[in-house]
Amino acid sequence: MKTVLKWILLTSLLIQFLSVPVYANSKRWIERNQEKARTYITQLKNGADPDRLKRPHLRRHNKWKVKQSRKEIKRAMDRAEALARAGKRYLIRIPDYAFNSDK
Question: Which branch of life, at top level (predicted)?
Fold first, then answer.
């Protein structure tokens, strides 16, 4: 009985230990993508030309949260570019993402 409980405990700890890096890695990708987009949008807001400024490369992943945050980031960058091209830089705002890293 003790060996069975010991194996169950060790197996559950191993599964938990192996699943943590996967969650942390996708969370890190979301944070990096958000930081890149925040920098890009700030540059547009401060007067950079959207035609000369290179759009940041956003990392891809198969996880649903990463895909959704990537779509949200792309929409925010598209909106900021459109406002910058229209000359309405004062309307550009730094987005408050639904997939914040602290959630």
Answer: Bacteria
Residue 36 CB neighbour total at 10 angstroms: 17
| CB-facing half-sphere around the CA of 46: CA atoms within 13 A | 7
pLDDT the model gives residue 39: 94
- pLDDT for 66 equals 85
Q: What phi and psi values does residue 71 have, to the nearest 5 degrees?
A: -60, -45
Q: Give the C-alpha separation, 85 to 53, whole Å.
A: 12
Q: Name residue 14's amino acid.
A: L
Give the integer Cα–Cα distance in Å for 99 and 70.
10
Question: Is-contact 84 57, C-beta < 8 A?
Answer: no
Our CA dihedral for 56, 59, 60, 64, rounded to 10 degrees, sits at -100
Which amino acid is located at 50 in the chain? P
Return the higher-pLDDT residue of 43 and 4. 43
Q: Global pTM?
A: 0.72
